[in-house]
Amino acid sequence: MVDATSLVATLRTDGGWTPSLTDTPFARLGGADAVRALVETFYDAMSSDEPALAKLHRCDENGRVDTVTRERFGLFLMGWLGGPQDYIAKYGHPRLRMRHSHVPIDLAMRDAWLRCMTKALDQCPLEQAVRHYLDFRFQEVADFLRNQP
Questions:
Q1: CA-CA distance, 97 to 141, in Å (whole number)?
Q2: Hey, what domains does the chain have and what are their CATH numbers?
C-alpha cells in the first residue's frame, strides 16, 4: 500500500492534483447533487452488472440496492470527499472495517466494487488529474476493506 507522501509525489509527477481544504474532490465533482448522481449510477451498475455484490446489500423487491443504502452511502461519500459531514452527525464515525466486518470481502468482491465505481466515475466530467486521484483513493479504500484472502 502507498503512503500519503508517495501518493502526493505520484500525483505531482503525473501533473496531478492534490486536494486542499478549499479545493476538495467534493467540489471538483460538483457538490451534493453530483455525488448523489454518482451514488445512483454506482448502485445501478451494481444492481445490473454485479448481482453477487448487490446481494450483499439490502435490495428492494426488484433486486435493486435499496434507497436507504444509497442515501447512507451518499452521505458517507460526501463527507469522505471533503463535503458536509452529515454522515458523522447522523451515524457517528464511519469505522469502515468494523461496519463491513460481517461481509466477506475478497479480491473478487473488491474488484466488483471497483468496476461499479469506475463505471459511475466514467459518467462524471472530471479533469484527468482529479480522476487519477479518485481512482487511486477508491482502490486504496476498497483494498483496505478486504477481509478475506
A1: 10
A2: 28-144 (1.10.490.10)
Are 99 and 91 spatial neighbours (Cβ–Cβ below 8 Å)? no
Confidence of residue 14 (pLDDT cuts 50, 70, 90): low
Phi, psi of 11 (to 5 degrees): -65, -40
Q: Which residue has the cell 471533503?
A: 82
Amino acid at 21: L
Give the residue from 127, 133, 113, 121 showing the smallest Cα distance to 35. Answer: 121
For residue 135, count CB atoms less than 10 angstroms from its CB and return exposed for 0-12, middle for 13-18, buried for 19 or more. middle
DSSP state, residue 71 = H
Q: Report the SS3 class of residue 85.
A: coil
pTM (2 d.p.): 0.85
DSSP state of 65: B
State how far the Cα of 48 lies from the Cα of 119, in Å rounded to an integer: 12
pLDDT tens sequence across 104-137: 999 999 999 999 999 999 999 999 999 999 999 9
Beta-carbon contacts of residue 145 (< 8 Å; ≥ 6 apart): 96, 97, 100, 105, 110
Q: What is the largest CA-CA distance in the chain?
A: 48
